[in-house]
Specification:
By secondary structure, the chain is α/β, with parallel strands linked by helices. The chain has 9 helices and 16 strands. This is Thiamine pyrophosphokinase.
Length: 319
Amino acid sequence: MTARHPARQRGATGELQAASDCRWMDAIMGSGTDTETTDEATHRSAAGANVAAAGPIQWYPISLIRGSRPPTPEGDDGSDDVRKPGFALIVLNQPITHHLGIIRRVWKNAFTRIAADGGANCLYDAAGVRGDGSFDNLDAIIGDLDSLRDESRVYFESSAEVIHDPDQYSTDFGKAVNYVRAQHGAPVDIVAVGGIGGRVDQGLSQLHHLYLFQTHPRYDEGRMYLFSGESLTFLLKTGHHQIQVREDEYEDVFDKYVGILPMKEPSRITTKGLEWDVTDWHTEFGGMVSTSNHVLPETKLVEVYTTKDVLFTIAMRQV
């Protein structure tokens, strides 16, 4: 069941706020239940305490489009990996002939650009075949190369390294991620273009990779984003997140539509800054999920508290 007005069902009133905050802290700190062993409860408490003590995780996805450096909070010495500018771009094997304006901006802002096998075909079809050199500065093509067409290979091989990786136990997406991390070290942020499109199994595989390649609770490997041209999707690990979605002095990058999806397992979430905010709200596939929510016109910072990992997706404005 999809919830667009979940607060009405939960009765998230001011009188219930204090109690809900306590329940939220119980969840994140791991208070345990009657069915848990003492060791399980202790483990959850220690893990939750570490997450809570580290403070909210800051997100500045606007920089992916604008190319601007995330603002450094007062007292931040700049050592946190998420404050570093720049990201690696991976182009997946999905057509990108639509939304080329915003894709060109993301391309320009990346410090390296990799095609995952047939992703090179998509770049060639979108621009190269018509003599448009927007994507000519491709750095590498990697995969088992079973999808790479001859004309695409000929077009790019004068500038891009072509790497054949025959491993059948990893996807071309996974091979590209491993290549980027091997070349540039961790942490390195990665944006995958062409995500969540085409076949359903491929789309779910792309979402699977967000979990597979981000195992640390504070993203020590770097952060990953899926960019479809219509939306940006990323993984919110257990804890408190603050997501900058608007700046006063600039035109909006994001549209109003937001979804928070518990793809892996059920979670309890609390949100601030959305039209239908929720407090200590249980969400799971097969139960209640929050889709088609709206960022309020005055909201600059969306806050999400979650007891388990959830996907956050937000619609893009087109340029």
